Amino acid sequence: MPLAAAFLVPGSPLPYLRPDVGPWTPLATACRRAGELLALQQVDTLLVYSTQWIAVLDELWQMRGHVHGLHVDENWYEFGDLPFDLRVDTEVTAAAIAATSAFGVRSKGVDYDGFPIDTGTVVANGFLNAGGQARLVIASNNVYHDWATTERLAASAAAAAESMGRRYAVVGVGGLSGALFREEIDLQTDHVASAEDDALNRDLLSALDSPDVAAIRKHAAEHAGRTRADMGLKHLAWILGAVGERYAGAETLAYGPTYGSGAAVIHFKLRDAG
Questions:
Q1: Are 21 and 188 in contact (CB under 8 A)?
Q2: CB-based contact 46:137 (threshold 8 Å)
Q3: SS3 at position 234
């Protein structure tokens, strides 16, 4: 089948840069496991949506065929640099851009040297596609797009990949609860900022195991409102939109803190087509 896999991974660089820190080790291990599972699928293309690539006017898509450089995270720079080397599936991206006007979204490709790739995309590619075996379709997070629009964008990207005969996987990049510690902490004691956030994150992860997508949408909206969730969990909307009727539940590979916020590595189950 064209759709081979779907994952949600944290956008925080902390597990990637410091997998030796005890509370972050399970997340790093699970991200590497997700990369191993993805490698088995031998996909051509990854459809990537990171909450950290912020757009304001149009929906932006990366259109430079080869993007490489050294990224420094604006918040966690003291933990190290993030080199990256990404190949972009420009054919599928161009088709996705052309499709969005049908549902009222203006899209634009960006193609220039030195364009700032966001931390979440760099980290997700580093964990899931370290060997560069797959090319990427990289969509921005337009802050004015709601959940439903994000689902439509993902569905159009998936349709573009299928129309081009690609075997593809879907990747949503972002966190769960959004509260961060605002003071310096002992990294080895990192935990989700509040017991309430922790309980709500766990409830969401449990809800994702149901194939009832309508119930998941409702639960996610409530969760986002109560936990200041990362960008309203639009990275989950991206996954649901791209997977569509093939959504069959989820397996949480790891759950833990990233300096107080909640994060998880999730492998989504797919129903056989037809």
A1: yes
A2: yes
A3: helix
Q: For residue 215, what is the enclosing H or E element?
A: helix 213-227
With 0.85 as the threshold, say if the pTM is over it: yes
Strand partners, 69: 84
Please give the Cα distance from 89 to 134 (Å, whole number).
9
Residue type, 71: H
**Helix (DSSP H) and strand (DSSP E) numbers for the chain:** 8, 10
- Whole-number Å distance between alpha carbons of 178 and 200: 12
149 contacts: CB under 8 Å, gap ≥ 6: 103, 105
For 42-76, the pLDDT digits (tens) are: 999 999 999 999 999 999 999 999 999 999 999 99
Residues 6+ apart with CB under 8 A from 231: 51, 141, 143, 174
Is residue 138 scored above 60 in pLDDT?
yes
Nearest CA to 35 among 65, 5, 12, 14?
5
- At 29, the amino acid letter reads T
Helix 213-227 and helix 195-208, axial crossing angle in degrees, nearest 10: 170
pLDDT above 80 for 185 = yes
Helix pair angle (147-163, 213-227), 10° resolution = 130
| Strand-strand pairing, 45-55 and 59-62 | unpaired
DSSP assignment, residue 88?
A: B
* Separation CA 164–CA 223 (nearest Å): 36
Q: What average pLDDT does this structure show over 112-131? A: 96
Retrieve residue 200's tokens.
């709500």
Residue 270, CA distances (Å) to 7, 31, 124, 138, 246 in order: 11, 19, 21, 22, 5
